[in-house]
């Protein structure tokens, strides 16, 4: 059963579990569980997707309860009127806070986009980051005799594919558990020493003006067991 974190007559939001697809896809024909279908069965009515989270990412996922609501919410995303806050654990020590203004070339999936025409274009991409905590642990990883991690807050100002993962990789502080843009040795080390078997990226908060009531809405999603274990092992308070 999905954790519902907000519901009214127009919209509903859940805390998406890590490694669960948002909806059915021919790219994952053998999967049997999807957020959209699970939520529909749970509340007994159709829901309409307005945005997505990558399969390995957990956190706030918003749906419309009608096609009209879905369309209004989608427009808020398209107009950059949704304020998104993520948390991540990354390799190494990243200091302070700042803005990553680094354009990203469109990523075409070898299967899903195999019929795409034209060359991928480079698009502007901006992410704000802030370091919350750092730790050094006495476990060897790769050529290092210890491992360092940072807990950071991320606020994307644009919505490019894998933007947060690619931006952190660009800074040489890839997100732990990222198999596409990360450090495989660090991923193996985190799995071996800390039991971390997933991407450590969580969509913690979503804020917007409700398109039907004009009220300010802030949705928050709690962190799952893996996150809680990592924070505890690193003595980071949440």
TrEMBL record:
The record's PROSITE patterns line, in alphabetical order, gives: PSI_RLU (PS01129)
Q: State the SUPFAM superfamilies in the record.
A: Pseudouridine synthase (SSF55120)
Reported EC number(s) for this entry are 5.4.99.26
For this UniProt record, the keywords arranged alphabetically read as follows: Isomerase, tRNA processing
Reply yes or no: does the keyword Isomerase apply.
Answer: yes
GO molecular function annotations of the record:
tRNA pseudouridine(65) synthase activity
Kindly report, in one word, the top-level EC class recorded for this enzyme.
Answer: isomerase
- One Pfam short name: PseudoU_synth_2
Keyword field contains Membrane: no
Q: Which domain of life is it from?
A: Bacteria
Q: Do you know which CDD domains this protein is assigned to?
A: PseudoU_synth_TruC
Annotated Pseudouridine synthase RsuA/RluA-like domain residues: 12-170
Catalytic activity as recorded in UniProt: uridine(65) in tRNA = pseudouridine(65) in tRNA
What does this protein do, in the record's words?
Responsible for synthesis of pseudouridine from uracil-65 in transfer RNAs.
Tell me the protein's name: tRNA pseudouridine synthase C
């Amino acid at each position: 059963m999905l954790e519902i974190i907000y519901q009214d007559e127009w919209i509903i939001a859940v805390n998406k579990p890590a490694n669960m697809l948002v909806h059915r896809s021919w790219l994952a024909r053998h999967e049997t569980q999807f957020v959209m279908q699970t939520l529909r069965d749970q509340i007994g009515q159709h829901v309409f997707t307005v945005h997505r989270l990558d399969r390995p990412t957990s956190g706030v996922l918003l749906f419309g309860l009608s096609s009209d609501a879905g369309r209004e919410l989608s427009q808020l995303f398209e107009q950059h009127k949704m304020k998104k806050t993520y948390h991540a654990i990354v390799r190494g020590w990243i200091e302070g806070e700042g803005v990553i203004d680094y354009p990203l070339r469109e990523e075409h999936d070898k299967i899903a986009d195999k019929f795409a025409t034209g060359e991928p274009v480079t698009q502007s991409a901006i992410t704000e980051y802030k370091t919350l905590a750092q730790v050094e642990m006495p476990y060897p990883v790769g050529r290092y005799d210890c491992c360092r991690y940072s807990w950071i807050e991320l606020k994307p100002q644009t919505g490019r594919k894998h933007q947060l993962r690619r931006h952190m990789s660009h800074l040489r502080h890839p997100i732990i558990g990222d198999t596409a843009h990360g450090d495989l040795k660090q991923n193996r080390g985190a799995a071996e020493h800390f039991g971390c078997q997933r991407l450590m990226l969580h969509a913690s908060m979503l804020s917007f003006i409700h398109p039907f009531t004009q009220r300010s809405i802030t949705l928050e999603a709690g962190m799952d067991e893996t996150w809680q274990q990592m924070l505890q092992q690193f003595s980071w308070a949440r």
